[in-house]
Amino acid sequence: MQKRIDAAGCVDYFQIPVSSGAPHAETTGEEIAGRLRRLLVLIHRDIAGLHSRTEERVHNIRVQTKKFRALLRLATFGARTGPAHEADRIARDLKGQFASARDNDVLRELLLDLFEASKARRLAAELGLNETANAGPHVGGSDTPTLAQLEAATGGLSLAHLTPTRIYDSWTRTYGAGRKALKTAARRGRDEDFHEWRKRVKELLYQSQAIGGVPVVARIVRPLEKLASLLGSHHDLAMLDARFESHLPGSAASGLVRKRKAALGRRALRAGEKLFAQRPSAIRLRFPSR
What we know:
This protein is an all-alpha fold. 68% of the residues lie in helices and 0% in strands.
């Protein structure tokens, strides 16, 4: 079916063909609880194996903890108190232990994409992105959050009562947060605004993947993946731009970085305007009713 265009000229990704009357798999609280447990197993495996394939495992841990937080918020409606809030805080802090190691790797790779190899290596050294800075994160110190703490906090959650209707309401709330973040990024255009929008888009993506059996959600998973990729590249360039600003302000190389970043920002906004064209209340009406 050809995608419908709404009055504003945007693709309506949420339009469902009339013929799509096939039953769908509704997501339950127990299913989300199972997904959270599986993510904890994956995080445990990668932390235990950090001594080998460190870069890959650091990346996996960061992605898995982001997915964990997204599903936790889907199940608990973004609770600000209690066991859910505590589990979210621990997951955030656990992920944060791996930030600098992963970021240095990303920025070195980005320099190699932007510049000739010898120049990229020289810039990496001048920007403080040397290899010795990435000896790997220290996990499990007395003053750092641990996986055991996260498992204990998650074990205190009860999701058996969670209904599909409640899950759909929570997803719609996440969509609304993404729409609001898009408007802020479009209005102010600051790197930190794009970064906040990116976090909301990734959260919506992970939640959409979890309830992808619902047609209205399944239709936007691929467009969300593409938008998240654009915003991820924009964020990498923003980090590199900030590094230039602190180490090599005004250099010719920084000009190229900012030009690429601005172009990606424009592409992301165009894609976002299509994905977030609908009001959350209108989209909620397209979910199945029981």
